[in-house]
Design goal:
This protein has a three-stranded mixed beta sheet with strand order 1-2-3. The longest helix is centred in the middle third of the chain and has 24 residues. It is of the alpha+beta class. The protein has one domain. Helices cover about 55% and strands about 15% of the residues.
């Protein structure tokens, strides 16, 4: 993994060169990672964004599944949530 400090964002020329070479950089502040910079082709901005969102959604689903495995909710809890959701959306 290649890291880049927030203060180095002002160096736009070297940033573009690093992204072209390394394709992705982890952005840090005070030594802690908080963002990911990814080089994308200018002709496919929307496609790249859609793929990134799809990957993030898949990762979130996988994480939710991992958390649910140790203590899956019982049928009554699921039914209660369905009823509550329908009531909140005026679907009852």
């Amino acid at each position: 993994m290649n890291y880049l400090a927030v203060k180095d964002l002002k160096k736009t020329r070297s940033l573009r060169e690093r992204l072209a070479k390394e394709r992705e950089l982890i952005l840090t502040k005070d030594g802690q990672p908080f963002a990911l910079l990814i080089g994308i082709p200018p002709e496919n901005v929307e496609g790249s964004l859609a793929e990134i969102r799809r990957a993030m959604f898949s990762a979130a689903v996988m994480e939710a599944r991992k958390k649910a495995v140790p203590s899956p909710p019982g049928p009554g809890v699921i039914e209660d949530e369905i009823i509550k959701s329908r009531r909140d959306r005026d679907l009852t």
